[in-house]
From TrEMBL:
Residues 235-371 form the Thiolase C-terminal domain. This is Acetyl-CoA acetyltransferase. NCBIfam families: PRK06158.1. It comes from Nocardioides caricicola. SUPFAM superfamilies: Thiolase-like. InterPro entries: Thiolase, Thiolase-like, Thiolase_C_2.
């Protein structure tokens, strides 16, 4: 059985003053309306960061009793992981219509900090916290530093990621930086230092926001209002919790997750028309491009600079929205691109999209390939 995404939507973005459940409700009801479905059709829920038992709390709030739920917490990659689990559950007949959702009010609630949360029993608390790193910025800065040294890459290669993201954001009225104007490499390099070699312009936004997608069988999807977007392939990899467990910060689990997704889909990176890659920091994008096979190690800066691969067309976490976990919004944008709904930022003729989530400290990695229904 082929599974398809039939609905996709954002909740309000920016600084909303709304609760997490309020934003979740917006995202889910908007995605269901987009699909031509209602809450009574939903028998599967996948979500995180609502409460200790996230899917249970959300289901109760929505007034439904799902046959299948998933609350796997893996940071920003969880939503790409949810696509795989939801597809498997639908194929197995365990449920028929799944909503994958996330929302956060971290900006209006002022709940985001760089201090980090270290559980007392973990290696991170024993071997990392005493050095006072900014969490997670200093960790990604270490990866960036190793990358620049290993490949004798230029600091401008990192900056180009932020510049490209802003170019797309200026075409997206929903983007947090829509009215901010263009960004230059010099702007990024000259921004306030955060953790060497990164500046604040290398770092994702802190916003409220979120989104939802709706999945069902392709057979059912073809009777719904919008063109179905097929789930072609998926893969995941979990590599580490702490940085002390990583031998080479420039090689991530995206190598394995991407290889699995492409193999399952019977595709290669050359088949991808548009890519949505988690951009918590500029270095995350360079590492992911190389791990997923879009270019050779050390060449991602040149790839971004060439603008030959439409990348993070919403503006990404750097200029569009970053509510703490971006993964579901990567999927929303991928779906919209494949439907041809993106207006000024639409990639002409897009038929295959890749969404790749990264969670934690380059800890979890999940890749999804989506395609149009031919």
């Amino acid at each position: 059985m082929t599974v398809a995404i039939v609905g996709a939507a954002e909740c309000d973005l920016g600084s909303t003053g709304l609760s997490i459940l309020g934003l979740q409700t917006q995202a889910i009801t908007r995605a269901l309306a987009d699909a031509g479905l209602s809450l009574s059709d939903v028998d599967g829920i996948a979500t995180t960061s609502v409460a200790r038992f996230s899917a249970t709390s959300l289901a109760e709030h929505l007034g439904i009793q799902p046959a299948w739920t998933d609350s796997t917490f893996a940071g920003g990659s969880a939503y790409e992981m949810f696509v795989a689990r939801a597809a498997q559950a639908i194929e197995a007949g365990q449920c028929h219509t799944v909503v994958i959702s996330f929302a956060s009010n971290q900006r209006s609630a002022k709940s985001r900090s760089l201090g980090g949360v270290y559980e007392a029993h973990t290696p991170e608390a024993q071997f990392e916290q005493p050095y006072g790193p900014l969490y997670p910025a200093s960790y990604y800065a270490m990866a960036a530093g190793q990358y620049l040294h290993k490949y004798t890459a230029a600091r401008e290669d990192l900056a180009e990621v932020a510049v490209a993201a802003r170019e797309w954001a200026l075409l997206n009225p929903q983007a947090f930086r829509y009215d901010a104007g263009p960004l230059t490499v010099d702007d990024v390099l000259g921004a306030k230092p955060l953790s060497t070699p990164l500046t604040v312009a290398d770092c994702c936004l802190v916003t409220d926001g979120g989104g939802a997608i709706v999945l069902t069988s392709l057979e059912r999807a073809r009777d719904l209002p919008k063109p179905p977007v097929l789930v072609l392939g998926y893969g995941e990899s979990t590599t580490n919790a702490s940085m002390t467990a990583v031998d080479d910060l420039t090689v991530t689990g995206a190598v394995a997750s991407g290889a699995a997704a492409f193999a399952r889909a019977g595709l290669t990176p050359a088949d991808v028309d548009v890519a949505q890659l988690y951009d918590s920091f500029t270095i995350t994008v360079l590492l992911s491009l190389e791990a997923l096979g879009f270019c050779a190690p050390g060449e991602a800066g040149d790839l971004v600079r060439s603008r030959s691969l439409p990348l993070n067309t919403s503006g990404g976490g750097l200029s569009y929205c970053h509510p703490g976990q971006l993964g579901v919004l990567l999927l929303v944008e991928a779906v919209r691109q494949l439907r041809g709904e993106c207006g000024d930022r639409q990639v002409a003729g897009a038929e295959v999209a890749l969404a790749h989530g990264t969670g934690g400290i380059l800890s979890t990695h999940a890749t999804v390939l989506l395609g149009v229904d031919r």
